[in-house]
Design brief:
This protein has two domains: about 220 residues, Spore Coat Polysaccharide Biosynthesis Protein SpsA, Chain A, CATH 3.90.550.10; about 210 residues, Hexapeptide repeat proteins (UDP N-Acetylglucosamine Acyltransferase, domain 1). By secondary structure, the protein is an alpha/beta fold. Helix 6 packs across helix 7. It is built from nine helices and 41 strands. The strands form seven sheets. It has an eleven-stranded parallel sheet, covered by helices on one side. A nine-stranded parallel sheet has the order 14-17-20-23-26-29-32-35-38, with no helix packed on it. It has a seven-stranded mixed sheet with strand order 5-4-1-6-10-7-11. Bound molecules: uridine-diphosphate-N-acetylglucosamine and calcium ion (CA). Calcium ion (CA) binds next to loops.
């Protein structure tokens, strides 16, 4: 069996954060999730995550995932280090398993790379294979030390390296493949006699070499995959690369991104071909967007389903559905559970919440539609308010097909307007309106002659 162990117990002090490092997000997804997903999508059959610092928070975030968590004891008096972390999972693999070690703070590693790496390890019959890379600036990473025959003899950490060793540009990515039995034995030999007083996983290599075990080095071409996140600066670098990766894939699928650098699309989003997205869009979560849509400005769409040929301008859409050929915005807000039909229009400064809004219906300006069912071909005038809340309870209103709600009307729920009901502008409607009726609720207009003259106002 192939088992992965993902190290995620460290505090990540350089992040200067109350959030554990591996829960910091890259395009809406905690970095640990990218590592878990690459692992699950590769040939790995079992995923084990080592947690310690703020363990509960991490477990909570991944409660729906099939992962076995192992807790590393934390505290001043407890040992520390990557070797000690891996020891916590010693009962999660067997002698003849292949164990792959990953880091929760190295989020860009891809499943294809892991599979290639695992194949190399197994075909070469290595006891341990190290994923390495040549870096122009290797500072901070452990260095791969080779003998005169280019055989790997050890890994030396930055803080323990001699001046000569610091010149080595080949680094340890922190990703390893091990023969399960050899790993178990070597972990037992670890000592903390190093600059940081930690149990280094990297010291396992020395032990294996002493025991004449074969060590492989798998050098990575795309070095960006092994970038580690230790600071907010690193986080932004990884986020930029992830964004580029996601956006490239979306463009390959036939979507135009006018300015990919300024378009933020999460990995879970699906977009169909010939949709055009202008700069500033943020598209998140479980969102699907159909064909031929145009999305402009600082639009944010979260967990929503958008049909075909929809135009959206500078709008926030949350947990909602929008039908085909509908136009939304500028500056509209669809709050959760709004279901807007086909050929509809939701215009400037219109807010919709928990409502159905039928095919061909329009609310072009400055309206609030809350907890209501609007039928087909309904016209909602400027400034209409669906008064849905009496301070204690919410009520629904129902406006049937082909009705017309004049500007600035208040519809005080619960109210039903039957088909072809007409509401006069400025009315406050508290009673149901029958099919084909005009409902007008206003006081009679009075014009007073000579009033200004009488008041000496001229
Ligand atoms: C480690 C490697 C270094 C490598 C680098 C790659 C060691 C000793 N050094 O250094 O050779 O070049 O990664 O990024 O292995 N962790 C635990 N428990 C602990 C300590 C750490 O789970 O007690 C986890 C951390 O949460 C992190 C990972 O292990 O996800 C790596 O730890 P970190 O402290 O970042 O190691 P580096 O100093 O980067
Ligand atoms: Ca690190």
């Amino acid at each position: 069996m192939k088992v992965s162990i993902i190290l995620a117990a460290g505090e990540g002090t350089r992040m200067k954060s109350k959030t554990p490092k591996v829960l910091h997000e890259i395009l809406g997804v905690p970095m640990l999730e990218y590592v878990v997903n690459s692992s699950k999508n590769s040939d790995v059959e079992k995923v084990c995550v080592i947690i310690g610092h703020k363990a509960e928070k991490i477990k909570e975030k991944f409660s729906n995932e099939e992962i076995s968590f192992r807790e590393q004891p934390m505290g001043e008096d407890k040992p520390y280090g990557t070797g000690y972390a891996v020891k916590q999972a010693i009962n999660d693999f067997e002698d003849d398993d292949t164990v792959i070690i990953l880091n929760g703070d190295t989020p860009l590693i891809r499943e294809q790379t892991l599979n290639g790496f695992l194949q190399f390890h197994e075909q070469g019959n290595f006891s341990c294979t190290i994923l390495t890379a040549d870096l122009d600036n290797p500072t901070g990473y452990g260095r791969i030390v080779r003998d005169d025959n280019a055989k790997i003899v050890k890994i030396v950490e930055q803080k323990d390296a001699s001046e000569k060793e610091k010149l080595i540009r080949e680094i340890n990515s922190g990703i390893f493949a091990f023969n399960g039995g050899d790993l178990k034995n070597a972990l037992g030999e670890l000592k903390s006699d190093n600059a940081q007083g930690e149990l280094y996983l990297t010291d396992v290599i020395k032990t294996l070499v002493l025991n004449n075990r074969k060590i492989g080095g798998f050098k990575l071409r795309d070095k960006r995959e092994i970038l580690g996140v230790n600071s907010r600066d690193d986080l932004s670098v990884c986020a930029e690369i992830m964004k580029e990766r996601i956006n490239k894939k979306i463009m390959v699928d036939g979507v135009t991104l006018v300015d990919p650098k300024n378009t933020y699309i999460e990995t879970s989003v699906k977009i169909s071909q010939d949709t055009i997205i202008y700069p500033g869009a943020v598209i998140q979560g479980n969102t699907t967007i159909g064909e031929g849509c145009k999305i402009y400005g600082t639009t944010r769409i979260v967990d929503s389903k958008i049909g075909d040929n929809v135009t959206i301008d500078n709008t926030l859409i949350e947990e909602s559905i929008v039908g085909d050929n509908t136009k939304i915005g500028p500056y509209a807000h669809l709050r959760p559970n709004s279901n807007v039909g086909n050929d509809a229009k939701i215009g400037n400064f219109v807010e919709i919440k928990n409502s159905n809004f039928g095919d061909g219906s329009k609310a072009s300006h400055l309206a609030y539609v809350g907890d209501s069912d609007i039928g087909k071909n309904v016209n909602i005038g400027c400034g209409v308010v669906f008064v849905n809340y009496d301070g204690k309870n919410k009520f629904r209103s129902n406006i049937k097909d082909n009705s017309f709600i004049g500007s600035n009307a208040n519809i005080v729920a619960p109210v039903e307007v039957e088909e072809y009901g007409y509401i006069a502008a400025g009315s406050t409607i508290t009673k149901d309106v029958k099919e084909g009726q005009l409902s007008i609720e206003r006081s009679v207009q009075k014009n007073v002659d000579g009033w200004v003259e009488k008041k000496n106002l001229k």
